[in-house]
């Protein structure tokens, strides 16, 4: 007759539910997979499937009762780690959307907004367009698989142990600052070109005051913005790839900083 003690049952539950908490938190907050349009059943099913594959390969969890105060603290810490890693990965998408917002404002399309369920809220159409493009680039370079690989590696970089304090949140905040640097790097060429266009329109208005700048300037600025954006896409691809690779490295750095 097979007998299972309470201690053995606690060890089995801890070995499954603590990794599940980190994996599910990352999947819920990661780009593409964590989009609100993806059903919750799919996210939970994917998290359980990944946990069943990964749990036997992980280091032994601490001998702590999952229902105790220490066990619940470890559970909360795993959720925090997963959310921090998912947020780190999503920085690249938000940087592209912010670059599109800057470009749209300079083009005169700041009023053209669409509802984005992932925010949720209204974002400029150029920002949503660049966000979709970099999301497709993420899938094209197998970023979803690299993200899961980095998640598994994080269990070796940061095993499931009782932590003293979330000191690694500073690393998450520092990585959050990359939104502004990445968005500026993506939008700067178009902003410079549109600034030159606006300066040329200003000189033209001074030379011909009878010219209706609103009838000529807005269509010309939008046309130039779309043209420059189209010509710049070949240079966006290497930048997107570098940003995505940097985000994968940052995931492990954040996990190591949370130690």
Automatic annotation (TrEMBL):
The chain crosses the membrane at residues 12-34, 40-60, 72-93, 179-201, 213-233. The keyword Transmembrane applies. It is a multi-pass membrane protein. It is found in: Cell membrane; Bacterial flagellum basal body. GO terms for biological process: bacterial-type flagellum assembly; protein targeting. Keywords: Bacterial flagellum, Cell membrane, Cell projection, Cilium, Flagellum, Membrane, Transmembrane, Transmembrane helix. The keyword Membrane applies. It comes from the Bacteria. GO terms for cellular component: bacterial-type flagellum basal body; plasma membrane. Belongs to the FliR/MopE/SpaR family. NCBIfam families: fliR (TIGR01400). Role in flagellar biosynthesis. This is Flagellar biosynthetic protein FliR. It comes from Candidatus Dechloromonas phosphorivorans.
């Amino acid at each position: 007759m097979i007998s299972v003690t309470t201690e053995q049952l606690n060890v089995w539950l801890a070995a499954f539910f603590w990794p599940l908490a980190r994996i599910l938190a990352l999947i819920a907050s990661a780009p593409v997979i964590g989009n609100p349009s993806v059903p919750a059943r799919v996210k939970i099913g994917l998290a359980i499937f990944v946990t069943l594959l990964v749990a036997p390969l992980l280091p032994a969890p601490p001998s702590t009762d999952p229902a105790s105060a220490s066990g619940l603290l470890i559970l909360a810490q795993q959720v925090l780690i997963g959310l921090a890693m998912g947020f780190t990965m999503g920085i690249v998408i938000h940087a592209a959307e912010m670059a599109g917002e800057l470009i749209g404002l300079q083009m005169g399309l700041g009023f053209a907004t669409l509802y984005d369920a992932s925010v949720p809220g209204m974002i400029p159409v150029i920002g949503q367009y660049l966000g979709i493009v970099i999301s497709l680039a993420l899938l094209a370079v197998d970023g979803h698989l690299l993200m899961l690989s980095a998640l598994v590696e994080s269990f070796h970089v940061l095993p499931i142990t009782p932590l003293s304090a979330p000191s690694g949140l500073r690393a998450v905040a520092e990585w959050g600052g990359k939104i502004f640097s990445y968005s500026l790097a993506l939008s700067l060429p178009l902003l410079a070109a549109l600034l030159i266009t606006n300066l040329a329109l200003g000189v033209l208005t001074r030379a011909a005051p009878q010219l209706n700048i609103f009838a000529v300037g807005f269509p010309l600025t939008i046309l130039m913005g779309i043209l420059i954006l189209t010509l710049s896409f070949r240079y966006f691809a290497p930048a997107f790839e570098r940003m995505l690779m940097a985000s994968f490295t940052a995931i492990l750095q954040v996990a190591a900083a949370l130690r």
